[in-house]
Write a structure and sequence with these properties.
By secondary structure, the protein is of the alpha+beta class. It is about 25% helix and about 30% strand. It is built from 6 helices and 9 strands, in the order αααααββαβββββββ. The chain has helices at about 5-15, 20-25, 30-40, 45-55, 60-65, 100-110, and strands spanning about 80-85, 90-100, 120-125, 140, 155-160, 165-175, 180, 190-200, 200-204. Strands 1, 2, 3, 4, 5, 6, 7, 8 and 9 form a 9-stranded mixed sheet that branches. The longest helix is centred in the first third of the chain and has 11 residues, at about 45-55. The model has no long low-confidence stretch (mean pLDDT about 90).
Amino acid sequence: MEYLNREWFFGQLDKRGHSLRDLAKHLKLDPSAVSRMFSGARKMRIDEAEKIARFLSVPVEDVMQNAGVDVGDRAITRLLLTTTIGVTGKMTKIDPRELPSAVIARAQAAIGLEHRGRAVAAQVLATKGPLSLWDDAVVLFTETSAIEPSAVGVLSIATLRDGSQVLCYLERARKTGEAIIRRANGEQTEVALLSAAPVLVVLP
């Protein structure tokens, strides 16, 4: 599509009771800049398309297609559920299976372009304990063989030297693998890590 489908965008705004000014505020742009975008005088950027998708609660592909932005290989077409997360935060590998398209659409709007095609999913199965608030939630992360610096100080997926994986808060980690994690029950533990990656998003 080489043109912007103005009617589609205004229809989506009307359907949700939003105005162009509301959208401009969400985008942190001047309303005149958004007006120029929707008149075709200014090309929509991909990061703006993602923010608009979140605002309208629609798949980012729909926004990009109706904005005349080439989706190319930037869209998530598949997202595999590879593990489950139990009551203690311990992860169990399962036969990978594709997630429903509705979950993929939400993931598309929630994670950045740099993680597209690399993200995998885990499902929380915890009817009791601290993780019960997230029971049935989908946790997105990227698989890695290193201790990512961005994993320190945030909720992360850690692979321990014994091969087990756990959802935890990574408090501190050395390049040599020695680390301190806080488990789901709040317990602080010293562990030896093989790898760690930050959680990208939790989809309730």
